TrEMBL record:
Pfam families on file: ABM
SUPFAM superfamilies: Dimeric alpha+beta barrel
EC nos: 1.-.-.-
Record's keyword terms, sorted: Monooxygenase, Oxidoreductase
This protein's name: Antibiotic biosynthesis monooxygenase family protein
Gene Ontology MF terms: monooxygenase activity
Domain ABM: 40-96
Organism classification: Bacteria, Pseudomonadati, Acidobacteriota, Terriglobia, Terriglobales
Length: 138
């Protein structure tokens, strides 16, 4: 399809966001990503402090396998500084929610982690997010 010169110009929103990002020292990249199905999975856990050592050990063990997956991009595990029982797991995948559930959640290495979540009655709230825009420091 032929694109006119006008179609290649950035939108007003892209100009504004790019300018704001430049002022604060970030690089703005439009939502065009080489990742086909960029999916962000955010899981909020409520974990009593007495159970956190076991939880952290198990999730670190799971991630020794996850980082080997072809569709895995990145992950972070963060703790609320004001509420230490609130733990957030942030994962980025080149997957769709359906493919993730079908292909990733059935991996053998996840079984012990999933069992621990149930056995310890850890509260877990997952959410799927799609990327709108990305910013990175230059």
């Amino acid at each position: 399809m032929f694109r006119s010169f006008k179609d290649t110009l950035p939108s007003r929103r892209e100009i504004i966001v790019g300018a704001v990002a430049a002022v604060v020292g970030l690089r703005y990249t439009k939502g065009d990503s080489p990742v086909k199905n960029k999916l962000t999975l955010v899981v909020r856990f409520r974990i009593p402090e007495l159970q956190q050592a076991e939880f952290f050990a198990k999730i670190r063990e799971v991630f020794t396998h996850i980082v080997q997956e072809n569709t895995f991009i990145e992950a972070s595990l963060v703790q609320d500084m004001r509420d230490p029982e609130s733990i957030l797991n942030y994962e980025v995948w080149d997957e769709t929610p359906d493919s993730f559930m079908k292909d990733q959640m059935k991996k053998d290495y996840r079984a012990a982690f999933e069992k621990m979540i149930v056995d310890l009655k850890i509260e877990r709230t997952p959410a799927w997010y799609s990327t709108i825009d990305d910013w990175k420091r230059e």
